[in-house]
Known about the structure:
By secondary structure, the protein is α/β, with parallel strands linked by helices. It has helices at residues 16-22, 26-37, 84-96, 103-110, 115-128, 190-200, 230-233, 237-240, 242-259, 268-279, 287-298, 306-310, and strands at 52-54, 60-62, 68-69, 140-148, 164-173, 176-185, 206-209, 224-227. Helix content is 38%, strand content 14%.
Amino acid sequence: MEAGVGSGGEGYPGNLVEFQERFSTEEACRSYLEKVRWPDGFCCPRCGNDRAWHMSRGLWKCFRCARQSSVTVGTLFEGTRKPLRLWFLVMWQVTSQKTGVSALNLQRQLGFKRYETAWVWLHKLRRAMVRPCRDRLSGEVEVDETYVGGVEAGVSGRETETKNIVVIAAEVRGRGTGRVRLKSVPDVSGASLVPFVQDAVTPGSVVHTDGWRGYETLGQRGYEHRVTYSKRTGRLAHELLPRVHRVASLLKRWWLGTHHGRIEAPHVDDYLNEFTFRFNRRTSRQRGKLFYRLVQQAVQVDPLSWKEVSSR
């Protein structure tokens, strides 16, 4: 199998053997990261100048402002004390496994001394799974909520006391499903649901929902709001909005299977970002391409400290 080629021409490994051969040294990892971050050549993080001296220890010195910087400055990897080889290996593990990896399994596989280290690294990578300035969904989009968590006694409908409420938007693509967006919300009021739609869906799109009153103002916000009432049609909810219900089912299966339902409320959106990243790239035949996309996005997001991750 030949390695794939990324948009910058740097390529990506097609399998584990190619990965190990390509990224066997720290220098090889740094060189790859430079090509991904600066496909047209070095660009100074401070002044934007493209001329610099390539110094020892992987540093660059700008001709214009004389600032010394490395390829990791201003990226997810800034300030890391661990080698890029280990970061790359973790990213390969995360993207090469179809359902992902838990922090506990990552700790065992790669020999992290502390569970917390594996946990923080995974959360940093989940942040990178959200591409900055990503396009909003468009065309016809189904929107509905689901509830993730344990069984609750004595509650019904849209009520919940302990479960996480997740609102889902899914593009209609013929009989199939296009891209998706997911977000946790505190409740199912219009104040929570409408802003999600505005962030996730392009104005002018057709937004298809059930008759819940939390969506009733969408028609006033620049959307063509299509409402279907299950009681009037006699059809079940999963028949009216099949795509979001299919996504909800896959989310719950992944939540329980990979993470055993052990996701704390403050970090739900981080896990939803990972699920979205995987779902929207589910048709990719090359797992190495997912690795490349994650590296590409990791150099576009701002640094995130241990304290910022753990305090979420």
